[in-house]
Amino acid sequence: xxxxxxxxxxxxxxxxxxxxxxxxxxxxxxxxxxxxxxxxxxxxxxxxxxxxxxxxxxxxxxxxxxxxxxxxxxxxxxxxxxxxxxxxxxxxxxxxxxxxxxxxxxxxxxxxxxxxxxxxxxxxxxxxxxxxxxxxxxxxxxxxxxxxxxxxxxxxxxxxxxxxxxxxxxxxxxxxxxxxxxxxxxxxxxxxxxxxxxxxxxxxxxxxxxxxxxxxxxxxxxxxxxxxxxxxxxxxxxxxxxxxxxxxxxxxxxxxxxxxxxxxxxxxxxxxxx
Amino acid sequence: xxxxxxxxxxxxxxxxxxxxxxxxxxxxxxxxxxxxxxxxxxxxxxxxxxxxxxxxxxxxxxxxxxxxxxxxxxxxxxxxxxxxxxxxxxxxxxxxxxxxxxxxxxxxxxxxxxxxxxxxxxxxxxxxxxxxxxxxxxxxxxxxxxxxxxxxxxxxxxxxxxxxxxxxxxxxxxxxxxxxxxxxxxxxxxxxxxxxxxxxxxxxxxxxxxxxxxxxxxxxxxxxxxxxxxxxxxxxxxxxxxxxxxxxxxxxxxxxxxxxxxxxxxxxxxxxxx
DNA sequence: CGATTATTTTCACTGAATGAAAGTGGTGGT
DNA sequence: ACCACCACTTTCATTCAGTGAAAATAATCG
Lengths: 274, 274
Hints:
The structure is a homodimer. By secondary structure, the first copy, chain A, is of the alpha+beta class.
């Protein structure tokens, strides 16, 4: 009869179903076979099968390309397309992104913070395809890896920033980002200038520039970022980009709803508005 | 007792949870209160609450902007970002879309068929923002409304096309599309030319051009579409666009996996591989 | 074709899910 | 300040949805 509040039970069909969905998401578009799913979600096969059938009935899962495989379905895509829009950021940001992309003909990214990560929620392509660290829309990067992500980290309150840095440093190092000293310098630099242009050159020749987006209470909620190449990032363009990004970011922040609990700190996961 | 196979039960926590997710998706980014959710999903409040809590624990649902509201969470967005990629179409299509967008500086859309509808699964913006019928990524249009959607419909086998037309005509008419005669003419015209440029002028001044994407078996699976304005659609540009779209669509189709069961006909919704 | 491995069905059991009812908290009217 | 109202939350006895071992069936491979 443990009434432990944080008893993150892995039982209940619902949690199991979500585990299956996660397993399918982790797999590619070719899908997974029942056995793989059962193993990945740590479920007996009959149970996995029953859940898959139900999900399939709901359209969230569909048959994969090769016979007897399963993958995430179109309905799930449609359903979730309207998710991940905290403070209406996606809608508010779209026009700004288009303007920036049109002005510089480079790719523009919109990232929101989620715990220790930043999630890419929108993108507007420029003339040349730029590879983003997050992979595609919906992808995550640890805060501190890449310009947008670093712009967010640099704008967090000191305590929170410290916690995130401590948590993410191993990940950042592992993925070829900055060392601790360089990262801390970059954070200070970003905070001072109001934009981030550290070349944590993960993709050789690539670079970018990002600014934090703050709501009206001053809390960082997102970042607006440009991805480009080193040679296109001339001093003049850099200045113009920084100026425009800051202007657009301010406009987005002003328009966003300040009363948004999505800025939950990573540590405190159970604040009830009691 | 009842062993009715098609007993699409609305019971089972899973189905109930999905009903709740659907309700939340239908609501805007401001979220819904418990009472509204319970009503929308046709569930008693305690049940709805319990499910919401579990979903929230999984990150699929989060607190809304105003106190005591719920909305779809970021995790759902991340999860589903990798869904809706039948035949790997999204990945295969991306480079083609970028090329087309760069060539004409107009917005490019990638639509896949889903039953009686077409779903927008990707978009690459041009210089001027074009409003798409589907709203945003993840949005649906009935087949036969808009160029991309019509390109798909025109390429279906006769019987299937007929069924879809009969099913969708009321919807199309209601939403300001073509009348039956005009639609049928447009379908023939599209099939003959290999691309669709009917100006079912839903958005005045807007127009576009679309081609079907067929897999190697010849089945239509998607459409590649350009959205532009009437004055930008000069005869020369139209010809160049049609040529390029057809070339790119053919390349995508050749690269796609032909053994994909996603081309399920709208009628047969319960084909079990027994 | 037979051996192996994956999928699916069956079924007796059980605890997860249920929802009526009671309790708590917050909001607005006077 | 008070009360009346409505929304949210907790409790708990009931029961049926979910479970998974085992067996049957189907696919795969050498």
